[in-house]
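Here is the promised in-class demo. Please do not try to memorize the tokens; focus on the logic of going from shape to residues.
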């Protein structure tokens, strides 16, 4: 989810880290780029960006997200530790339930966004961004030491595969006898995959993802098994490999944040419209990192607000300036693209609260010309989660 995508020639890719699925990307003619220090496919030959995007909206796309950082936190203080560095009430999270959350610094700024899954009373499975790996690990270690928490922190290797789209459930169901109809959005299970995994081990399957469609994220600690599992899925007619370009446009249509664009250490969860991640008990106790600043913003309502815009003409891009009706600069585009689903431009920005209302007209400076745009409610495209 991090924005740091360097532009390297193929000759430079040898120095990059590889995921377990790297050879699969080459087999399917992936166009490889440097993404957070990993060689990752942005597109596959024979599929345009729009075709890949639309395939996920109609069928099932397989995304390699093994570059993401998978953590396991356990021990008597695991809940206290995670409730210190996030605003989420994890004590109330039921086993095998997940929540989007944010890591916060002492000023209430967002260090990273994350998905946290409770696996039992003292064990949590946490996924963070590859581009934030080094600073996240340093942050987590320093916070544990500073507060004297008794925790065990492990990194999980292997493959992490996202299977997304309306046909994802039917495809995955072919590989397991587990009834996936019992697994709803925001929940997870350890599931047997019919002999595809070494030693017949079960794998952690979460229902959710980063596209707005129904889907799953499957964590397979054994790298060789991750390859077999991915190849088995890609042998199905309904499943195609999908790269970073469509992953980004899909998440943008779903109104989801990208770290380094919508989320930074200067942005708090209130401005990001992530106030719902702040637990009721945490609002009352105010003991999480940056609580003073975050709760002030929540109550005083002084923050800018993340807002969606639609427009015509050239597609807005990150960094384009945004102006109000009087010509005053009021922000800049954090993410923007032509929406393959809506066939119009969609973008996100941060606006003053009085302008962050549906229907407000603003202007985006694109190539030296101010183009009209209108504030709309997020997400741009309705989500299709299995609840």
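The designed amino acids, position by position:
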């Amino acid at each position: 989810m991090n924005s740091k995508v360097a532009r390297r020639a193929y000759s430079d890719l040898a120095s990059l880290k590889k995921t377990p699925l790297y050879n699969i990307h080459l087999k399917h003619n992936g166009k490889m780029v440097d993404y957070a220090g990993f060689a990752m496919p942005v597109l596959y030959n024979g599929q345009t960006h729009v075709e890949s995007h639309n395939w996920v909206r109609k069928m099932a796309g397989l995304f390699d997200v093994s570059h993401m950082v998978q953590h396991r936190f356990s021990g008597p203080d695991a809940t206290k530790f995670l409730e210190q560095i996030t605003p989420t009430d994890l004590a109330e999270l039921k086993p095998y339930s997940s929540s989007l959350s944010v890591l916060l610094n002492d000023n209430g700024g967002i260090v990273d966004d994350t998905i946290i899954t409770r696996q039992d009373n003292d064990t949590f499975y946490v996924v963070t961004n590859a581009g934030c790996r080094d600073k996240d690990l340093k942050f987590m270690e320093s916070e544990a030491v500073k507060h004297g928490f008794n925790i065990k922190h492990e990194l999980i290797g292997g493959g992490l595969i996202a299977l997304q789209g309306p046909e994802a459930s039917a495809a995955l169901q072919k590989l397991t006898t587990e009834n996936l109809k019992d697994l709803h959005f925001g929940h997870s299970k350890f599931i047997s995959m019919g002999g595809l995994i070494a030693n017949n081990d079960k794998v952690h399957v979460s229902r959710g993802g980063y596209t707005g469609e129904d889907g799953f994220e499957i964590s397979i600690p054994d790298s060789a098994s991750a390859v077999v599992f991915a190849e088995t899925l890609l042998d199905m007619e309904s499943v195609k490999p999908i790269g970073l370009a469509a992953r980004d446009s899909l998440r943008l249509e779903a109104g989801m944040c990208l770290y380094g664009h919508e989320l930074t250490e200067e942005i708090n969860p209130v401005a990001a419209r992530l106030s719902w991640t702040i637990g009721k008990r945490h609002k009352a106790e105010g003991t999480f990192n940056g609580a003073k600043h975050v709760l002030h913003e929540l109550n005083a309502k002084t923050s800018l607000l993340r807002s969606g815009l639609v427009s015509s003409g050239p597609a807005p891009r990150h960094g384009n300036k945004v102006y109000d009706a009087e010509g005053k600069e009021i922000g800049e585009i954090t993410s923007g693209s032509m929406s393959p689903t809506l066939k119009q431009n969609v973008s996100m920005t941060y606006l003053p609260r009085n302008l962050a209302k549906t229907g407000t007209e603003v202007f985006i400076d694109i190539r030296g010309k101010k183009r009209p745009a209108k504030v709309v409610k997020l997400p741009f495209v309705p989500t299709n989660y299995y609840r």
